[in-house]
Design goal:
- The chain is of the alpha/beta class.
- The chain folds into two domains: 133 residues, Aspartate Aminotransferase, domain 1 (Alpha-Beta Complex), CATH 3.90.1150.10; 244 residues, Aspartate Aminotransferase, domain 2 (3-Layer(aba) Sandwich).
- The protein is built from 13 helices and 14 strands.
- A seven-stranded mixed β-sheet has the order 2-10-9-8-5-3-4, with helices on both faces. Strands 1-13-14-12-11 form a five-stranded mixed β-sheet, with helices on one face.
- The longest helix is centred in the C-terminal third of the chain and has 21 residues.
- The structure holds pyridoxal-5'-phosphate.
Length: 391
């Protein structure tokens, strides 16, 4: 390895770079998690999480990855043999489906081409057909991190309501929360799943579920077994800011700081910044004469952009050149997209100039790796940023 100067450019769509303020906030001695000082921290972060999810209801924080919080959503609301409706939006939808199937859930998995989000019209049609109310939940990925396409959660909620169907709405906003607009209560989501290392700008290690009253009621009668993930066990001590087992204290200090940063910026401003950075990235892709993977403009992700490699060129070979020459990590294509796309993360602690640095690295990398492209992507991105475009 050659010695590197300056900062590594971590431009994968999670984990995202951890701001210095958050790093400093975590530089703390570990405290007694049953003592009074912890109770204060616990109450602050639990309240702060409600503000970020935009909910009045409880948010549970696990020492876990996002995958753990996925499991929490399933085992607290569903029963073996239940049917759920899911959409093949990409790799993460496929993995969540696999998990549900392992818990004995029957998944009606609507096929997709990995280039758009879940279709609200299909949600409505499927639920309207289901007069016996066999479908217990609609499970959707808010921001499909493998493709850079979002699903329109508010429209999916409206589709469920039009069908007058009682199914729960379970949403994975693991890579959406803190970057893409998310309104838990207003959108009538029953369980939202997230984790620390994407839009929340923290290291990996925290998983979250935001829970509606309807989901809480379901958790009292569903029959899947659980222990570590049991909401009831968590919510009791959470009422006073405490946890039933040892929480990730150090990460919670970081979470408190990250929430403070998001509140200082303001959620509407934060969402607008992500949209502007995403629009500039797409302008760059267009400038290079390359293709954005997402084909539905209303569903472009503000979090990341997946770029289709020209035919006959390997995205991983290109990413290797970028890492070696410019010390920048770009996201790999996952599963069936391996080698076919690379992903540019523009989430969390990212601003105009960090984005321009990243896009310069991509443009220089395309040249260095002999990938056919036009120059001018970086210029197009600057023009987009200076125009204030966010669509
Ligand atoms: C990252 C991610 C996950 C998995 O989270 P882990 O922390 O790796 O378990 C699930 N869904 C989406 C949409 C993600 O982006």
């Amino acid at each position: 390895m050659t010695a590197r100067t300056g900062r590594h450019f971590l431009h994968i769509p999670g984990p995202s770079p951890v701001p210095e303020r958050v790093m400093r906030a975590m530089d703390m001695p570990v405290i007694d998690h049953r003592g009074p000082e912890f109770g204060q921290l616990g109450r602050e972060v639990l309240e702060g999480c409600r503000a970020i999810f935009q909910t009045e209801g409880p948010v549970v924080i696990y020492p876990s990855s996002g995958t753990g919080a996925w499991e929490s959503a399933i085992v607290n609301t569903l029963s073996s043999g239940d049917t759920v409706l899911m959409f093949e939006t990409g790799h993460f939808a496929t993995l969540w489906r696999q998990m549900a199937a392992r818990w004995g859930i029957q998944v009606d998995f609507v096929p997709g081409d990995w280039r758009r989000g879940a279709d609200p019209a299909v949600v409505e049609a499927k639920l309207a057909e289901d007069r016996a109310h066999r479908i217990k939940a609609v499970m959707v990925i808010h921001n499909e991190t493998s493709t850079g396409a979002t699903s329109r959660i508010a429209e999916i909620r409206a589709a469920i309501d039009r069908a007058s169907h009682p199914a729960l709405l379970l949403v994975d906003t693991i890579s959406g929360l803190g970057s893409a607009e998310y309104r838990h209560d207003e959108w009538g989501v029953d369980v939202a799943v997230s984790c620390s290392q994407k839009g929340l700008m923290l290291p990996p290690g925290l998983g979250f579920t935001a829970i509606s009253e309807k989901a809480l009621a379901a958790s009292k009668t569903n029959t899947l077994p659980r222990s570590y993930w049991d909401w009831a066990e968590m919510l009791k001590p959470n009422a006073n800011g405490y946890f039933p087992y040892t929480p990730a204290t150090t990460l919670l200090y970081g979470l408190r700081e990250a929430i403070a940063m998001m509140r200082e910026e303001g959620l509407p401003e934060l969402f607008a910044r992500h949209r502007r950075l995403a629009a500039a990235t797409r302008a760059a892709v267009q400038g290079w004469g390359l293709e954005v993977l997402c084909q539905e403009p209303a569903e472009y992700s503000p979090v990341l952009t997946a770029v289709v490699m020209p035919h006959g060129h390997d995205a991983d070979a290109f990413r290797k050149v970028v890492l070696e020459q410019f010390d920048m990590s770009l996201g790999a294509g996952l599963a069936k997209l391996a080698g076919k796309v690379f992903r540019i993360g523009h989430l969390g602690e990212c601003n105009e100039l960090t984005l321009m640095g990243a896009l310069s690295g991509v443009e220089m990398g395309l040249k260095a790796a002999d990938v056919p492209h036009q120059r001018g992507g970086v210029l197009a991105a600057m023009t987009s940023l200076q125009s204030g475009r966010d669509d």
